[in-house]
């Protein structure tokens, strides 16, 4: 058997690498070619079911995966890519969502509960290559969820790095001829590196205020409106029987200090009789100081008297600062 040339081996290895790269990058044709995925139109599937493996409900601002399962005429089960870890491409299905959002096997619900309150999510799944297959799924909304309203001050700028010192020049070459000796020149000293700049201080956390009241109805839900001095107003709907809302206001991080410039190297002494002396290395610049972190911002919670029994669902963290709780009538927030 003849030997395979190294160029052929290299081309073959390069082709395999290209195929692997394209497969990992999500190119459907390549994934099908290497067997990682399969076109649904090529399968004799007779049954389809869609499920939410992470639970039947979705909370505002949450994403949850969708899985479609198929059974073919031989009894073999096929699942979709993504959470289903299967070979069926989501691009072979048409998913029509209502209330919820959808993108490549993942459902989502808008963060603002005012957009979905009192509604039920729904999806309709069709298979163009198998018109007889069709599935629907209702998606209840849940407010038993650990919601979080976190705010932070701006981070400080990083300090500029110092400049490197210039290297010294080498000494001139003399002569080592015993009949005509001459001294080598001395190398010049290296320059000093400059100091790195100091990092900027982080800004203080924003002032945060939350209003909390009870939504009339069953089960008991808490309405919350959260405002911060550096952000848009956010709204939350919380089931106090298992759900929560955590409020945070933290200072921005101080910027890092710049790195001091390296020392310049001394030039080498020139060869000769005698040889010249090498120059001294310069001094490295000092690193800059890191900026200070900003202080946490204040948090105030204004709650309606009817919400008082459920305040354990409202958590506040402000870096050790006392949180101000104010009880006063709060009208419905939307």
Find the structural class using helix and strand composition.
Answer: mainly beta
Question: Taking strands numbered 1, 2, ... along the chain, how are they ordered across the largest sheet?
Answer: 13-12-11-15-17
**Whole-number average pLDDT?**
91
**What percentage of amino acids are in beta strands?**
25-35%
Low-confidence stretches: none
Describe this structure as you would to a colleague.
There is one protein chain. The protein folds into two domains: 12-142, Immunoglobulin-like, CATH 2.60.40; 143-334, no CATH class. The protein is 8% helix and 28% strand. A hairpin with a 4-residue loop joins strand 3 and strand 4 (77-79). The protein is mainly beta and 334 residues long. Strands 13-12-11-15-17 form a five-stranded mixed beta sheet, with no helix packed on it. The protein has a three-stranded antiparallel beta sheet with strand order 1-3-4, with no helix packed on it. It is flat and about 105 Å long. It is built from two helices and 17 strands.
Offer a concise description of the structure.
The chain is mainly beta. The protein contains 2 helices and 17 strands. The protein has helices at residues 6-25, 28-33, and strands spanning 45-51, 63-65, 67-72, 77-79, 94-98, 101-103, 106-108, 121-126, 134-139, 146-152, 208-215, 221-228, 231-238, 244-250, 299-303, 314-317, 324-327.
List keywords for this structure.
334 residues, mainly beta, Immunoglobulin-like, five-stranded mixed sheet, three-stranded antiparallel sheet
């Amino acid at each position: 058997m003849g030997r395979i040339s190294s160029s052929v081996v290299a081309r073959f290895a390069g082709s395999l690498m290209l195929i692997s790269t394209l497969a990992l990058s999500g190119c459907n044709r390549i994934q099908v070619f290497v067997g990682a995925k399969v076109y649904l139109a090529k399968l004799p599937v007779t049954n389809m079911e869609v499920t939410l493996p992470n639970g039947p409900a979705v909370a505002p601002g949450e994403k949850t995966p969708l899985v479609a399962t198929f059974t073919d005429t031989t009894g073999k089960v096929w699942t979709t890519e993504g959470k289903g870890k299967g070979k069926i491409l989501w691009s072979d299905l048409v998913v029509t969502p209502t209330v919820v959002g959808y993108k490549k096997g993942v459902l989502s619900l808008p963060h603002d509960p005012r957009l979905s309150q009192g509604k039920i999510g729904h999806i309709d799944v069709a298979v163009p290559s198998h018109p007889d297959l069709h599935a629907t799924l209702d998606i209840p909304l849940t407010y038993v969820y650990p919601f979080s309203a976190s705010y932070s001050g701006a981070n400080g700028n990083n300090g500029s790095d110092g400049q490197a010192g210039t290297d010294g020049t080498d000494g001139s070459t003399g002569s080592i001829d015993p009949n005509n000796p001459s001294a080598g020149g001395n190398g010049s000293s290296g320059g000093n590196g400059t100091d790195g700049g100091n990092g900027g201080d982080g800004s203080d956390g924003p002032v945060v205020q939350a209003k909390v009241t009870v939504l009339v109805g069953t089960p008991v839900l808490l309405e919350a409106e959260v405002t911060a001095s550096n952000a848009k107003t956010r709204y939350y709907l919380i089931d106090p029987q298992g759900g929560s809302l955590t409020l945070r206001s933290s200072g921005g991080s101080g910027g890092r200090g710049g790195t001091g410039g390296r020392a310049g190297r001394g030039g080498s002494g020139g060869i000769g009789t005698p040889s010249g002396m090498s120059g001294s290395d310069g001094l490295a610049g000092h690193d800059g100081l890191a900026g200070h972190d900003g202080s946490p911002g204040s948090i105030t919670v204004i709650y309606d008297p009817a919400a008082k029994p459920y305040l354990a669902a409202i958590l506040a963290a402000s870096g050790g600062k006392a949180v101000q709780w104010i009880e006063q009538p709060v009208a419905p927030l939307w």
